[in-house]
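Example record

One chain of 99 residues, shown exactly as stored in the release files.
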Amino acid sequence: MCAELLTIRWTDRVGKDRSAVVSLEDISEAGACLRSEYAILPETAVSLHYSSGKYQGAVRYCTYETSGFLIGVAFDDGYRWSKADFEPSHLLEVPSLGE
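Predicted C-alpha cells for this chain:
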C-alpha cells in the first residue's frame, strides 16, 4: 500500500485528451490502483506520470466509492514497476502470509 500523487493521461470516448491528478493507492510490478475524481472506462489506454518517467497501461476496472473512483491499471509489456525506478513517498510493504 502506498500514497503518492501522480498524473494520469488518457483519451476519452469522444476523442478529447484528458489528464487528472490521482492518488496512487497501491502498486505492484504489473499494475497500480488509483483513486480519482473522474471515471475512466475499462480498456482505456492510459499513461501514469511520476517525477522522472511514466508507465503505460490500460484500465481494467473503475468502480465508484463515496470518496471517488477506484481505478485498476494493468501495465503494458515493457513497463514494470520496481523501487529502483520509482518509490512512492509513503510505501508500506505487507509481507506475504506463509504457511
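Notes: The CA atoms of residues 29 and 82 lie 6 Å apart.
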